[in-house]
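notes to self, project folder thing:

trying the whole complex as one job this time. last attempt i did each chain seperately and stitching them together was a nightmare. two parts in total, labels are on each line so i dont mix them up again. if this works i'll redo the older ones the same way
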Amino acid sequence: VQTLIQGTLIVLAGSTAGLLLNIVRPDGISLRAPDAGQEAPSDEACVAPAVQARITLAEALELYHARQVVFADARVGEEYATGHVAGAFHLPCQPHMPAWPARVGRDATVVIYADERGDADLVAQALIAGGHGDVRVMNEGFAAWQAAGGPSETGTCEICE
Amino acid sequence: VTVVTALSVTLRLGLAALFIYAGVAKLLDTQSFAVDLANYQLLPAALVPLVAVTLPGIETASGACLLISRTARAASFLAFLMCLAFTVAVGQALARGINLDCGCFGTTSAPVTTSTLVRDLGLLGAAGMVLLALRPR
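result (full assembly):
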C-alpha cells in the first residue's frame, strides 16, 4: 500500500512539475487539442498531430536522382535565395503559405526540408491538410544536403507562381 | 545474494540516470516531443499535449526517486509501467509501418527501428528485475 501511495505521489509531483514548467516557460505548448479540420495551421499548430514519413538524407538523394519526387524548401526567402536543392519549390513556413504550384499534381511525392525540423513538419502538415497523399520530411537540413554533394542552385524561385 | 544485490543496485542506478536524462531532454524541447508523440498515432489528439507536458516530468521524478531507497520500489514500478508503454508504442508503430522519430531522448532522437524495440524490451526487463529485487520481505 505504501508503494502505491508513493507511486501516486511521484506521478502527481512529476506531472505537476511538468505542467508548471510548461506554464512558466515562454515557448510552452497549448494544452488544448488542435481544432479539427483547420485550413492552414498557424505557428502554434506545430504540435498538431500529423501523419508524415521521415526520410534520411541518403533516401532523399536516391529519390532525387531517380527523378521521382518534387522537393520543397520550407525556409525563409533569403535562405532559399542563398542556396537550395536544385529544382526545389519554395514553400516557406509562415501563417499563410503560398499556394501549391498548380502544375505539380497532388499525387506527386513531395520531400520537404528545412533547417528547423518544426518548419518542415508544419509545411508537411499543411500539404497533407490540402489533400496531398505522399509527403515526406527530410531529417537533415540543406547544409547536410550540400555537404553530401546534393545538387543545389541559388536565386529566387522562378518555377513558383 | 551479494551478487544479486550489487546487480540490482547497478541496474537501479543505471535506470535512474537514463530516466532523468530522458525526462530532462524531453522537458527541454516539449514541442518536438509533442510532434513525435502525435506521430505515434496512439493517443487521441486531445491528450497529446497533456501527455507531452506531464510524461517527461514523471520520468524525471521517477528517475530521481529510483535513487532514494525509501521510494525506489514505487519508482521502479512506475519505470516498469513506462517501459511497458514505450515498448507497446514502438511495437505498434513498427507493426503499422509508421516511419517516425522515436522522441525517446528529446532532440537527439533517432528513427524508430527494431533496435529501438529491442532496447525498450531490455529496459523493461531491467525495470522488472529492479522491481522484483526490491519486493518487501
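what i see at first glance: Chain B has five helices and no strands.
need to look closer tmrw
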